[in-house]
Amino acid sequence: MATILPPDGEEPVMPEIATKAPSPLSFPDYRYFWVARFTAVLATIAMVVVIGYQLYDTARTDYGMSIKEASFQLGLLGLFQFVPLAILTPVAGWAADRFERRSVAIFSNLIDIVIAATLGWFTWTDGLTLPLLFGLAALHGVARVFSGPAMSAIAPNIVPPAVLPRAIAMSSIAWQSASVVGPAAGGLIYAAHPTSVYIFAAAMLALSAFTISRVRPVLPPPAEVRRHPLREMADGLKFVWMERFLLGTITLDGDPVNQSVLHGFGYMPEERGLYPKMEIGDQLAYLARLHGIDKAAARRRADVLLDRLGLGARRNDKLEALSLGNQQRVQIAAALVHEPDVLILDEPFSGLDPLAVDEVVTVISEHAARGVPVLFSSHQLEVVERLCDDLVIIAEGRVAASGERDELRARYSGNRWSLQASADLGWVREHTGVDVAELAGTSLLFDADAKTADAVLRAALDLGAVVAFGPVRPTLGEIFRDVVTDSTNDEQEKEAAA
């Protein structure tokens, strides 16, 4: 399996397009969204900090609790805000998929405005009690659990795909900066006047609700069949459980990748990370021992690999004494020395001469033949085409094409045909529906649909012997150029439409 990057010396991707992508803030909808996110987080964080202080103060002053008892109440306060998150997350996800996302976010803000107004009133009248604070904290948790999925679903729908990574980053900046400013603002305002912090929070939440209402409607995805909400929530939980990447879990053969499994990974980074002043034989044996291999076996594997890669006579040389190409061979040996179960290589053929490439390809192929999955990226498409079974072409940071090698070549073969015959083929120029690309006497390349190509073949057979005939399969380099060009054009059209 390979991830194919642009070949050296070629610039089909037109990288200057990426550098000219507009800022997310150049889109009015996103500006409203950013302000709404910042002000809502600022208000709620300020409220949470002050609620915690007031709960502790009320427990100590009005209920006569000790420091330990009042501190325990603070812990319970966090629990009261967490429980709605644990219970209502499936419901919140279902709501974000069923209702217009702006409406869900605005409704959450309105709940928090009611909470701020209630707390402000009871702070003004000195009527705060522990049950009231716990109840309002739980209600605040309910509002936040519904606001999160709704707000997260808005950003991807209001900016072009090319701008989305920056939009997500700036949304995170809004959250992080508000999380830092919120506690400080809440504390300072509370110190000036206790009730004012809730007036401030209500104003910020109202501003958030107003700005999110200015964003264009973000409708939920269409559904052909509406099922019972509980069934939809259950399906959502099942999907998250089955798609482990959503939980940040990496699996191998269905099992989570833990530390013991990682010992079976062989990884070669593009940037060399070996010790320049250490002898390469000792270095490889040391790396093998880090993977749990005993000393004798580690030395034996290091020697075998160095011999296979043409470095046996230099096993006692320091890494810095080797050429860049030979250093690359050592780097590959470091990934293989512990006989990995999975092999991941980043640009393994960089800096290697053709003979060295053949040696490395042979060693990697032997591992693949034993059932070891090999994933590598490379600019050298001729090596990729020769070595890999499954291919992925990436353009503009997205998967532009993927599939088995022969299937991919067949898919992008188009309507070009090759014909070699015993007689001159100049007559094909006059054949209806044929566009001759190259003609050299008895050899011909031409473009035509399948039916027309079959007619050309039959006509050639009537005039003499046909030596060879068939569709022309493009090389991987040709497929890459076509796919990257199409992907770039699509991105330009989307940005122009936006």
Low-confidence stretches: 1-19
Alpha plus pi helix count: 17
Task: Using the 3D structure, state the CATH architecture of the largest domain.
Answer: Up-down Bundle
Multimer state: single chain
- Give me the CATH fold name of the largest domain: Growth Hormone, Chain: A
First-residue to last-residue Cα separation: 36 Å
User: What is the rounded Rg?
Assistant: 33 Å
Q: Give the biggest sheet.
A: 6 strands, mixed
Q: Which overall shape is indicated by the principal axes computed on the Cα atoms?
A: flat
Q: In what order do the strands lie side by side in the largest sheet?
A: 4-5-6-1-7-8
CATH level 1 name of the largest domain: Mainly Alpha
Count of the domains: 3
CATH superfamily of the largest domain: MFS general substrate transporter like domains
Order of helices and strands: EHHHHHHHHEEHEHHHEHEHEEHEEEHEH
Give average pLDDT, whole number: 83
**Number of DSSP-assigned strands:** 12
Task: Please report which band the strand proportion falls in: under 5%, 5-15%, 15-25%, 25-35%, 35-45% or over 45%.
Answer: 5-15%
